[in-house]
Specification:
The structure is a homodimer of 280-residue chains.
Chain A (H helix, E strand, L loop, with lengths): L9 E3 L43 E2 L7 H4 L2 E4 L2 H10 L2 E3 L5 E2 L5 E5 L6 E10 L3 E6 L4 E7 L8 E3 L5 E2 H6 L2 E2 L4 E3 L9 E2 L5 E10 L14 E5 L5 E4 L5 H10 L32
Parallel strand pairs in A: 1-10, 4-17, 13-14
Antiparallel strand pairs in A: 2-16, 3-6, 5-13, 6-12, 7-10, 7-11, 7-15, 8-9, 15-16, 15-17
The structure holds a DNA duplex (24 and 24 nucleotides).
DNA sequence: AGTTTGTCACCTAGGTGGCAAAGT
DNA sequence: ACTTTGCCACCTAGGTGACAAACT
């Protein structure tokens, strides 16, 4: 039960950490386990079920009081949803690429004085490989998934820290980078291009007890935001995604044509979205 | 004995921390306690005693084994000495200014598995206020020191961390900023302009014992590098200092005139330094 | 007269998508 | 045919000293 699943090494802004004996994780990524009723390719927006306002913890056994009351709120939720309706794509590069939108959360209900580690991992949303049909502007299934790259986990660089510290302000995973390099030694998250993924967020109570391994399962709580799922790509496929990135990411401002779209407008009428395509 | 001296609050890259009960410091800055036989204004370079290669811990009582063996090595020592021979000046601004050279150290002899906090503070080198005589290119005593600003301490943002983590690579205090704003609420170090200061570096073992306050004095070790002392200024006084900053600080590259001084040359013949001036 | 402040041009450092070229 | 790579111009973000103006 003691994190056999996230093998390889651990990714953090502070450098690579040895697998921490005190941290424990839910089983991760190696096997295919769809977490949510993900409707993909993204259907007509109006028809899709709306994601919940606050993440649902993936329910499990009894939890330590230090984590049982923890609640997590996704920041930039409207932006995430805008992307998700179009079918979010995230660039992966050899050197590692940040996510946009950034994964940011507001945390509530921690024990102020207890130590926590915060981390993320990515699970495949299905067992398929995709390709994008430009003529129909739709994603198509292109076969079974490629072999899964080494599973990794990204610790927030400030881990471990007191609950008070984590709750003081929004927690941002802006040091997290995605790569398609199977041999990456920068501790980045390795993903298969043209595959679908679901980011997961884990709150781990750092148990001071000597036999803390025993309580591994009780000491963490995981959160999944369906609206953050995405397709990993080496180049954007859906032109609408490109345009929304340019419109909303400050670093892409150089590609904006005018001041008219100088800032992301969350309630822009999103007409003419690609229709659901046939899965072969 | 439990850090009464560094009052106010604590400065760290992670934000402002409540005074940590578990950390303990040597008495700091409020009272005037010259630490070293500092020869200032800087006399003829050849005549000055050379600073030691490795910092001398400020000797004290018995130490916890976790800190007793810790050794610290100053990085960019040659550059620090070059500045020190001219009489180092550090800019202070309302918004806060980084130090250049940066205070960076290599650490040896920590317990790999123990937790440590790393921090810095600044003690007045004397009880005087200075002014710079441009005609003679010399510093002169201009009276007694102004009232000491609130003493502060800068925790390295990665604190606390395991010994292994600290020793893995050079530790850099590049988030530390100096200000002259007595009302600063960014947690920066507050200094009096036209006064002389000695940076100090402290290694604090985070004692897991419940009654760790009892062992406060045993759990830290302090290091002082005489070559890092400086005068706080709001604008550079000695034109040679300005030129050396421009020549050696990458961020000031815009002020270099040619490629000839494109990089700092540590063994440049330092002729024509300002002579020792009369203290009134 | 001496010291401080604010603004500026000019850097470093690094995050964007575009695009042509190279892989496969 | 489809996907990946490398390089680029163009941004954000922020660290420099110069300098004129303001302060005291």
């Amino acid at each position: 039960e003691l994190l056999p699943s996230p093998p390889g090494f651990l990714s953090t802004g502070r450098g690579v950490l040895a697998p921490p004996e005190t941290y424990t994780l839910p089983a991760a990524s190696s096997s295919w386990e769809p977490r949510l009723g993900s409707s993909f390719p993204p259907g007509p927006a109006a028809g899709s079920p709306r994601p919940q306002a606050v993440a649902e913890p993936t329910g499990q056994g009894p939890k330590n009081p230090c984590v049982s009351g923890v609640t997590v709120q996704l920041e930039m939720k409207a932006l995430w949803e805008e992307f998700n309706q179009l079918g979010t794509e995230m660039i992966v590069t050899k050197a590692g690429r940040r996510m946009f939108p950034n994964f940011q959360v507001k945390i509530l209900g921690m024990d102020t004085l207890a130590d926590y580690a915060l981390l993320m991992d990515f699970v495949p949303l299905d067992n398929k490989r995709y390709r994008y049909a430009f003529h129909s502007s739709a994603w198509l299934v292109a076969g079974k998934a490629d072999p899964a790259p080494p599973g990794r986990v990204h610790f927030h660089p400030d881990s471990p820290a007191k609950g008070a510290q984590w709750m003081r302000q929004i927690v941002s995973f802006d040091k997290l980078k995605l790569t398609n390099n199977l041999l990456d030694d920068n501790g980045h998250i390795i993903l298969n291009s043209m595959h679908r993924y679901q980011p997961r967020f884990h709150v781990v109570f750092v148990d001071p007890r000597k036999d803390s391994e025993r309580y591994a399962q009780e000491n963490f709580k995981s959160f999944v935001f369906a609206e953050t799922q995405f397709t990993a790509v080496t180049a954007y496929q859906n032109h609408r995604i490109t345009q929304l990135k340019i419109a909303s990411n400050p670093f892409a401002k150089g590609f904006r044509e005018s001041d008219l779209d100088a800032w992301y407008c969350p309630l822009l009428p999103a007409q003419g979205r690609p229709q659901a395509s046939a899965r072969t």
